[in-house]
Amino acid sequence: MIANIISYALLIGLIVFFFVAMRRILKRDNVINELILGFYDYQTISKEEVISRMYQYACKDFRLKGLIQKYNATEDDYTVIFDKLIYWANFKKRKRYIPINSFFFYGSLKYLLQHKDDEAKPITMKMMNYFHF
Fold it and tell me: What's the structural domain count of the chain?
């Protein structure tokens, strides 16, 4: 009897965790797609607005917020990194655009912040490999 209650509680916990994680992923993907469409496809969003919105998202997201605090990242850091990425990877593949997508995933953002002073080409190549370009 107690084993059944524990297993049901665990199942409900996993279901709730799944829905919370999926909600976060869908919100992130909606923000990414909106920025890509506005900046690359329709050109209705300026570079400064894109960088500002990416930084604001990272400051609100519970996983990315830790990276921002750990590496003391600022919008100026985002601008420098964005310029490096856009120089070598200013193209889109399906719903992926390296200069925008790179700032929304933990592993890629961690790499970018660790290597923000490196040259543009190695950073861009790493991000292209990360996103399977």
Answer: 1
- State the residue range of the domain holding 48: 2-130
Residues 72-96, buried b or exposed e (16+ Cβ, 10 A)?
ebeeebbeebbebbbebbeebeeeb
Q: Which residues, at least 6 apart from 43, have a Cβ–Cβ distance to it below 8 Å?
A: none
* Over residues 11-32, mean pLDDT: 96
pTM of the entire predicted model = 0.87
C-beta separation of 100 from 58 below 8 A? no
> 38-58 burial, b for 16+ CB within 10 Å, e for fewer?
bbbeeeebeeeebbebbbebb
